[in-house]
Design brief:
Strand order of the largest sheet: 1-2
Distance between the termini: 73 Å
Order of helices and strands: HHHHHHHHHEEHHHHHHHHHHHHHHH
Structural class: mainly alpha
Radius of gyration: 22 Å
Largest sheet: 2 strands, antiparallel
Shape: globular
Strand content: under 5%
């Protein structure tokens, strides 16, 4: 795959044709709606519309629309995460941590605008990386084997110390519970059942979407019912315009998270649900005000959304260069290529350069369309805040049930969502942090698989994680993060004890 300005300009000319701009706009709008609805997600959206694109007869327009659905959904998940604390996608969990706090401060609209701007910046930078650096970056991604994946996931799991804040013990308990949840079902390597207690429903495991919907959406409803809430947010003023100073304040967060999200997004299996947690932790360490994280840090929201969209763009690098999808949504998109007799890989660039560069160029156009279409919609989304809770609460429950059911069409998933709603409510009551549980559930299966494969390669020796340079690098970062977190926790406890002694005196 050789880069050529001529190919890119030809691609831009094709992508900017009225019909292709129309399909990109349709994809962005549908993707945003798909992201807003909990449980649907880009994978389901692309899969549902894939057969319909066959009616178009034009592979370029079809793939442009499907790709726009993908990165449109990545942005759409932030809307409900910010306004009502319901992540529409797993990648929006970190957005809800600070976004909802900002919404409760009456800044939901500006926060949504920052999300849109951050998504556009990261998406554009990601497409630039896709245009210029696809071959070497894809080759680098292929050097990752099971030891490297395990080390990377272990480093991500070390972020639990950061996500737990000052409640380190409670954070570790929540993470352990998350690991236990992920083990229910079948062993990913042997297929043997575990922790199913003879239940056929548990053989398929507990769906991650049900866990998210329960811990966030349903538990939020329970908490507000207990408080006799009249409005979800105390501030009913609807404003969507961010201050220019806020945009400038977040500029470095957007750039840092774009780099983190893009490079991690090259790796198969390293989904936005993982990269957003890592980018959030990185930004917290760089921030001049880390104490705001978890209480309404606008730069934290910007970082998460940038990593989310950069990861989405990066996934197209191995897809186009080698035909390797990095996640389920791109695997469905690969099916769209196959449907038109196109096989992604090096030969596609030689045989169909016009098609490939039109798709790449359409991402520049599509990301700009996402920004232009969603900024005016922010004032509409922000009005969720002024809906009385007696009306909004039942609506949240209805959409939560639909979202939980729509993933696998099983009532079992609905009951699990309700169960985790109760668990989430109790975790709030006893001040157990939810993010460590979510992160553990996200990482557990991939960690387990990579660990088992690594030990097979090394005949059971753990030295494989320290003798391979990339794996050793991530392991060192993980242990440094753990040591730093434990030291800060001990220092914080020491200060609290000293203050208690002073107050007694």
């Amino acid at each position: 795959m050789d880069f050529s300005f001529t190919y890119l300009l030809d691609g831009l000319w094709t992508a900017c044709s009225p019909i292709n701009i129309f399909w990109a706009a349709v994809g962005c709008l549908v993707g945003t709606l798909v992201g807003v609805l909990p449980g649907i997600g880009p994978t389901s959206g692309i899969a549902i519309l894939l057969p319909l694109t066959a009616k178009l007869g034009d592979p370029t327009g079809s793939i442009i629309m499907l790709a726009a659905i993908y990165y449109g959904a990545m942005y759409g998940g932030s809307t409900t995460a910010i306004m009502v604390n319901i992540p529409g996608e797993a990648s929006s969990v970190c957005t809800a941590i600070d976004g909802f706090q900002l919404a409760k401060q009456g800044r939901g609209g500006p926060t949504l605008a920052i999300c849109a701007i951050s998504s556009w910046v990261a998406g554009t930078l990601g497409v630039i990386g896709l245009s210029f650096f696809a071959p070497p970056l894809a080759s680098l991604a292929l050097k990752f084997g099971p030891p490297e994946y395990f080390s990377l996931m272990f480093m991500a799991l070390a972020l639990i110390i950061s996500l737990a804040g000052r409640a380190l013990l409670k954070g570790l308990i929540a993470a352990s519970f998350g690991l236990l949840i992920s083990y229910i079902g079948q062993n990913p390597l042997t297929g043997t059942s575990r922790l199913t207690f003879g239940s056929l429903d548990l053989m398929g495991g507990i769906d991650f979407i049900s866990v998210i919907i329960g811990l966030f959406a349903i538990s939020e409803v329970f908490s507000n019912v207990e408080k006799h809430t009249r409005y979800m947010l105390a501030h009913s003023k609807v404003d969507w315009k961010p201050k220019w100073a806020e945009v400038l304040y977040c500029r470095f967060a957007m750039l840092r998270a774009s780099v983190v999200g893009f490079f991690l997004g090259l790796l198969p299996g390293c989904a936005p649900a993982v990269t957003t947690f890592i980018a959030y932790d990185v930004e917290k360490r760089f921030s001049k005000h880390p104490e705001k994280f978890g209480n309404g840090a606008i730069d934290g929201v910007a970082a998460v959304e940038a990593a989310n969209n950069a990861t989405s763009s990066a996934g197209f690098v191995p897809l186009f260069a080698f035909g390797l999808p990095t996640g389920p949504a791109l695997a469905v998109l690969l099916g769209g290529f196959m449907m038109y007799g196109l096989t992604p890989g090096p030969m596609l660039f030689q045989e169909q350069p016009g098609f490939v560069w039109a798709i790449i160029a359409s991402m520049y156009v599509g990301n700009l369309l996402c920004l232009l279409l969603n900024l005016p919609l922010i004032s509409i989304w922000a009005r969720i805040a002024v809906i009385p809770f007696p009306v909004l609460g039942p609506l949240i429950l209805i959409f939560s049930v639909i979202g939980a059911y729509s993933v696998r069409f099983l009532m079992f998933d609905v009951w699990m969502a309700l169960l985790f709603g109760v668990i989430g409510y109790l975790m709030r009551k006893f001040r157990f942090p939810v993010p460590p549980l979510i992160l553990a559930v996200v990482l557990a299966q991939m960690m387990e698989t990579s660990l088992a494969q690594s030990l097979m390669l090394s005949d059971g020796s753990l030295s494989i994680f320290f003798t391979r340079p990339i794996a050793a690098f991530f392991m060192c970062l993980a242990f440094l993060a753990i040591a730093r977190g434990v030291w800060k926790q001990a220092k914080s406890d020491g200060l609290e004890d000293a203050c208690a002694c002073d107050s007694d005196d």
